[in-house]
Amino acid sequence: MKKTLLFITAASAMLAAPVYADTQPAAPAPKLPEFLTKETEATLNQAGKELRAAQGKERNFAKLLDTYSKLEFSPELRPKLKEIFGVERPFPLQRSAGAKGQINYVGKLAPHLFVQGNGTDFSWTELTSKITTDKAGRTLNANVTWPSLVVARPDGSARLLDMTITTRQQRGADGAAYGTANFGIGAITVHEAAVGGKTAKELMRFEDLQARSETVRRGSMAEIGYRSSVKAIVFGDERVERATFAFRLTNIPAKEMAELDQSLRAQENSDLALDARQEVMMLKLKDSGKRLIKAGAALTIEEISAAYRGNVASVKGRVAFQKVVDADFENMPALIKKLVAHFDVRVPVALVRDVGRATATKTIPADTPDAAKQIDAAGDGMVSMVVGKAVTSGFAVVEKGELRSSIDFKNGQLTVNGKVIELPNLNLKQKND
């Protein structure tokens, strides 16, 4: 499913915002904490390289599982893996009994505390997995459970609880795998200090995260769907509930899926260095995205929504291109003019008022004599400012207690609630001009 997610990311980016990276200056990357040392990364990369070498070009799930169950890492790599995982074979697979015609394995990752020495430590409970395939090696079903993973640093930490993965895949005659993958995390808690310490105050909590991806074959075409949700995001006394993101990419030639799969596999098995291999993969994903646009692929935003104090704000829409030819990819203004997008936006007026009240609550002392009155006034003021300005400017209307607007882009023109918005000059000079 890793390749499917890469495919989704690249294709969605191509459809939603066609930007040529080589025409814009690169922004400096923010400095992030070093979660993995270079030594740890090198060990993991070498383990992946040895696994790929053992699997070769094999595509049969049954044979791939058999190969992994017998794999012995190189003598120089084993002590390094033991340092990270506590064992020389991090995830051993063992055959288990099952129904006739099935091949079953059980895999486990033993509990461990990995102290890197760079300030970031990892500890986890036992991960277990049950994997099933058929004798033909065309199907693969897996169920994974992982009760706890903790990432601890002196300046902050995170705990992931009750993680699950369920996948159902079937390889088609073209070699591409179709199916579903469901991911779940019971909770993620973020703390301002190392977990377990007396000062490990909780800063944020995510409750019941769920994600589902699916790849479906429909005749000569395929489609990809993705949906993720969070029951609640808690920070301090505030809760954002039922946050959802869902989209579907349709009109994908199945042939393109198979060719991309083969191309990415070839790069995974190449002898190129990791950075070079990733660069080649991204170029291939970009080329595939262009072919999707030419084929008429469309991105449907099925839902982007969240609730605050019982009121739900949402966005739905669709993004596609009209009759794109190869020459359009060399001419940014021409490509943008063929972009067609439509979005519907819904924001309850009550939600705007609640945000204003919540903001005021943070700044008005609770012992202020007329605190409640001031908070109510702040909420009404927020409605007047946001809703009033949007309506009087013609960018939205209020219907059934909701601020509603439609956003359209077609023939290079942007309109919001039917009102034309002037855009800056989109004439981009090519790098080689």
Automatic annotation (TrEMBL):
Signal peptide range? 1-21
- Source taxon at top rank: Bacteria
Sorted alphabetically, which keywords does the UniProt record give? Signal
Q: Which Pfam families match?
A: DUF945
Q: Does the keyword Signal apply?
A: yes
| Name of this protein | DUF945 family protein
Supply the source organism's classification.
Answer: Bacteria, Pseudomonadati, Pseudomonadota, Betaproteobacteria, Burkholderiales
